Automatic annotation (TrEMBL):
This is Creatinase N-terminal domain-containing protein. Residues 421-441 are annotated as: Disordered. Keywords: Hydrolase, Metal-binding. It comes from Ceratodon purpureus. InterPro entries: Creatin/AminoP/Spt16_N, Creatinase/aminopeptidase-like, Creatinase_N, X-Pro_aminopeptidase_P. Belongs to the peptidase M24B family. SUPFAM superfamilies: Creatinase/aminopeptidase, Creatinase/prolidase N-terminal domain. One of its GO terms (molecular function) is hydrolase activity. Residues 126-248 form the Creatinase N-terminal domain.
Length: 528
């Protein structure tokens, strides 16, 4: 799988100051600084500078054409019509002059009568029936799935469905009266285009924009009930949200029944992916599964843990040397792993497991259970007195609470049994049982750390992948130069992206790109 990004704006490099492109992080930071001064008169610079991207795996250099949602008030030249949209991720600057950026809200500014948003109306109806009919005042819809993944399968794109905003990052919050969406600077323009008239865009990271929890605290009255799907929030995120809401005596409600957006989505919601797993060959992995499990068990023993639940999809794939195809452009499958000192269990839909994968797992001593049975397994661990290693930054609220509740039940039962006992000898026995009882150990995942330390086979794989991708890019640049040399032929962004993927697909070992090519031309370069 190739990992290099396609930088389709390279032809602009000769016009750009070199320091701007020393790192992706610096580019993102520069955009943030420029965006923060939107709405003020600022001097225009002499160089056309456009920066897009900013995701961990993305970097695109995009050209802007045309004045867009900005009022040019300086003199400037034809080349130098300055553009800056308040809170946007694109900046062009001109030769002299200055300008004032104007806010953009296209649908609201149109002042037309739009029909009510049926999805929002139906979601608000679900508020009344939620949480055992106790009702909700607001509901938060994140971008993530139950594994806290950044990139997810279509059936879990709940935020995109309810809001209409299709960018990869964002959080939607719906109250009985309002609907707001938070996203970062990569997607301000896209969100303005895609959000309906009832939605308010909250430009995350810009001065004066509150966080979701701060906004809820300010918007809702005391005693308000804010609902979340506990499988879609990490334990840390859930705790932080609960603390913030509590400052105004607002309550965080964990809605364990069907996700409310799923109820609105109904039969139109895509089916969960059921793509087959495949074995990741040892010549690429470098270390077999049995060795990885043995190393993990040493880590568990060193801190007194007896079990660990692995929830991140990339960690599951790495630990068991297997790959999937459940998420576009990501070689992962929806699954969990529970590792104990003597056993290991993969929780996955068995329809994804071929005979080859089954034999591969069996050889390493890994059993298979249904994906949906993880919570009951967590409760079993607590009932048996497990010391469970949990990464609270990654494991969901639902999993953490399932273990905590089962631990509480364990000690409640223990107290009842103790009250029935008499005599010092029996009391000493009960004290020992209590000492050996279940407990959660909150620590960063050792799997993520081990995965980050590449062995020689993995390093060589990375080298070979980059060499093959460099060859594909060389072919691509040669093709592109021939196509545009006389300036007469017009090439679309789609054609450019298709040709780049075609050249990559010719390379040996190619499976997929790590994300869709980001290509832009003229006005489409505004959106990332």
């Amino acid at each position: 799988m190739t990992r290099a990004s396609a930088i389709v704006g390279t032809l602009l490099l000769s016009h750009m100051p070199t320091p701007l492109f020393q790192s992706q992080q610096r580019c993102a930071g520069l955009v943030a600084r420029w965006s923060s001064v939107a709405g003020t008169r600022i001097p225009a610079l002499r160089t056309v500078v456009v920066v897009g991207g900013g995701a961990r795996r993305r970097l695109s250099l995009l050209r802007i054409g045309g004045v867009r949602s900005a009022e040019h008030v300086g003199k400037g030249s034809a080349l130098g019509q300055a553009r800056l949209v308040r809170g946007k991720t694109a900046v062009t600057c001109a030769a002299g002059g200055s300008f004032v950026a104007q806010p953009s809200s296209r649908r609201k500014a149109a002042k037309k009568d739009f029909p009510p948003d049926e999805k929002l109306a139906n979601l608000r109806k679900e508020f009344e029936k939620a949480a055992d009919n106790k009702g909700l005042d607001a509901y938060i819809i994140p971008s993530e799935d139950a594994h806290q993944s950044e990139f997810i399968a279509d059936c879990y794109m709940r935020r995109a469905y309810i809001s209409g905003f299709t960018g990869s990052a964002g959080t939607a919050v719906v109250t009985k009266e309002k609907a707001a969406l938070w996203t970062d600077g990569r997607y301000f323009l896209q969100a303005e285009n895609e959000l309906g008239h009832e939605w308010t865009l909250m430009r995350a990271g810009t001065p004066g924009t509150p966080s979701t929890s701060e906004w809820l605290k300010e918007t809702l009255p005391e005693g308000a009930r804010v609902g979340i799907d506990p499988f879609l929030f990490s334990a840390d995120a859930g705790d932080e949200l609960r603390r913030t809401l509590a400052e105004k005596d607002q309550e965080l409600v964990l809605v364990y029944e069907d996700n409310l957006v799923d109820k609105v989505w109904g039969d139109a919601r895509p089916e969960p992916p059921s793509n087959s797993l495949r074995v990741h060959e040892l010549r690429f992995a470098g270390v077999d599964v049995a060795t990885k499990l043995a190393n993990l068990r040493k880590e568990l023993s060193s801190v007194g843990a007896t079990a660990m639940v692995v929830t991140m999809l990339d960690e599951v794939a790495w630990l068991l040397n297997m790959r999937g195809n459940d998420v576009p452009h990501s070689p992962v499958a929806y699954a969990y792993v529970v590792v104990e000192l003597e056993t290991a269990t993969l929780f996955v839909d068995d329809s994804k497991v071929s005979h080859e994968v089954s034999a591969h797992l069996n050889e390493a001593g890994v059993s298979i259970k249904p994906y949906s049975s993880l919570v009951s397994e967590i409760k079993r661990l607590a009932a048996e007195g497990a010391k469970l290693w949990l990464d609270s930054a990654r494991v969901s609220v639902a999993i953490k609470n399932a273990f905590d509740d089962a631990c509480a039940q364990y000690y409640e039962d223990l107290e009842i049994a103790r009250s029935r006992k008499r005599g010092s000898k029996e009391q000493t026995t009960m004290d020992k049982e209590e000492l050996d009882g279940p407990a959660a150990l909150h620590r960063p995942s050792p799997v993520g750390i081990a995965k980050a330390i590449k062995n020689e086979a993995e390093l060589e794989g990375m080298r070979q992948a980059h060499l093959r991708d460099a060859a594909a890019l060389s072919e691509f640049w040669a093709w592109l130069e021939c196509e545009i040399v006389d300036g007469k032929k017009k090439i679309s962004e789609v054609e450019v992206a298709d040709h780049l993927e075609k050249f990559r697909a010719k390379q040996s070992g190619f499976l997929d790109t790590s994300f869709e090519t980001i290509s832009g031309l003229s006005s489409t370069s505004f959106s990332v």
